[in-house]
Specification:
By secondary structure, the chain is mainly beta. It has a single domain, classed as Immunoglobulin-like, CATH 2.60.40. The protein is built from 1 helix and 9 strands. Strands 1-2-3-7-6 form a 5-stranded antiparallel β-sheet, with no helix packed on it. A 4-stranded antiparallel β-sheet has the order 5-4-8-9, with no helix packed on it. The longest helix has 17 residues. It is globular, with a radius of gyration of 18 Å. Copper (II) ion binds next to loops.
């Protein structure tokens, strides 16, 4: 590879890193698909997630997220429930307070103005 090609490749990689979110994951339950992302790496404490619901019928719904960690030896069950803010066009933002590192289960509750509500399951590792 010549020098110019190397510089070009480095620039491409740099641009990709700048645009990418620190965390991205797709959650799917049945026909409902939600793209989760965070600009910052997930950590214990407050995390802000962006949720994009791909299904047309849930573009303007009420969305809440339950994060929980089952009881572990020497540790009780932990849980927090947060309401998401609708940003329009199926995009929602939610703040989650995750008390410790580890694996958190997520239940995303989506309640449309009309029609059936759904629950999409996912998990976060931090
Ligand atoms: Cu725990």
């Amino acid at each position: 590879m010549n020098r110019l090609a190397k510089i070009f490749l480095a620039a491409l990689l740099g641009a990709a890193l700048l645009q990418g979110a620190a965390f991205e994951k797709t959650a799917k339950t049945g026909a409902t698909q939600v793209e989760l992302s965070s600009e910052k790496p997930l950590t214990s404490g407050k995390n802000t997630l962006t949720l994009v619901v791909l299904n047309e019928e849930y573009k303007d719904a009420a969305v809440s997220v339950k994060a929980f960690m089952p009881a572990m030896p020497g540790m009780p069950h932990m849980e927090s429930l947060s309401e998401a803010v609708s940003l329009g066009k199926g995009k929602y933002r939610v703040d989650l307070n995750l008390a410790m590192r580890g694996t958190w289960q997520l239940h995303i509750f989506i309640t449309p103005k009309e029609g059936k509500k759904v629950r999409v399951k996912s998990s976060l590792n931090l």
